[in-house]
Specification:
It is built from seven helices and five strands. The longest helix is centred in the N-terminal third of the chain and has 24 residues. The chain has one domain: Undecaprenyl pyrophosphate synthetase. The radius of gyration is 19 Å and the shape is globular. 26% of the residues are buried. It starts with a helix and ends in a 13-residue tail after the last helix. By secondary structure, it is α/β, with parallel strands linked by helices. The chain binds 3-methylbut-3-enyl trihydrogen diphosphate (IPE) and magnesium ion. The site of 3-methylbut-3-enyl trihydrogen diphosphate (IPE) has 10 residues, from helix 1.
């Protein structure tokens, strides 16, 4: 969800105003998913690298996150959206953890729509943590090194039951993966738009889906005969 800072700068506003506007795009994206029947939405809200930002921007983002969760909790229930977090939750401030854990628990009964927030998330960190979990299983004798495969490796990632993404949308024209879902994006289709995240609303979402629907996904195989 990139481009919040640039959105604010263009308007001579403080960066946090861009993040606030961006949080409205989050709501728009959740509504679009329901409208277009997309069961899984994973949003890269805060990376492990983002901890290196100025302290006041970090605390502004954390406050925004709490306000956002409290404001839209009802809407998640109304739409049967299950909230989950992937990332190092333990790095988040205590009050953010408390607010998130409540909604995570209260929405855990829903199966229809899934909103996954990547918080203090890093793709490399996730893969290393999976390796740690697997090493423990090997040490305890529960798993043999020669039995490690792609499937049981992936079972040790943060949210193992979530299918790999079909589409990865990157806003603000950046041509980078930025340490996002390194394992899971293997065969995802990429859609990169110059639109800044705060301006990425339903029409833009629809454009991304339209382009996705015209992609020919071969997964390394040759094109099947029509
Ligand atoms: C993304 O917008 C929001 C977060 C990382 C939380 P940026 O803050 O990276 O916006 P730009 O890149 O400065 O425009
Ligand atoms: Mg950025």
């Amino acid at each position: 969800m990139d481009g919040n800072g640039r959105w604010a700068k263009k308007r001579m506003l403080p960066r946090i105003k861009g993040h606030e506007q961006g949080s409205q795009s989050v709501i728009s994206a959740i509504r679009s998913c329901k409208k277009f029947g997309i069961k899984y939405l994973t949003l890269y809200a805060f990376s492990v690298e983002n901890w290196a930002r100025p302290k006041d921007e970090i605390s502004g983002l954390m406050n925004l996150l709490i306000r956002f969760i409290k404001k839209y909790e009802k809407e998640l229930h109304a739409n049967k959206v299950r909230l989950r977090v992937l990332g190092r939750m333990e790095d988040m401030p205590e009050d953010v953890q408390v607010a998130l854990n409540k909604v995570i628990e209260d929405t855990s009964c829903y199966t229809e729509y899934n909103l996954n927030l990547a918080l203090s998330y890093g793709g490399r960190t996730e893969i290393v943590s999976a390796c740690t979990k697997i090493s423990r299983k090997v040490l305890s004798g529960a798993l043999k090194p020669e039995d490690i495969n792609e499937n049981n490796f992936a079972d040790n990632l943060y949210l193992p039951d979530i299918p790999d993404p079909d589409l990865m949308i990157r806003t603000s024209g950046e041509m980078r993966i930025s340490n996002f879902l390194l394992w899971q994006l293997s065969y995802a289709e990429f859609y990169i738009t110059d639109v800044l995240w705060p301006d990425f609303r339903e029409k833009e979402f629809y454009k991304a889906l339209l382009e996705y629907s015209n992609r020919d996904r071969r997964f390394g195989k040759v094109q099947s005969e029509q």
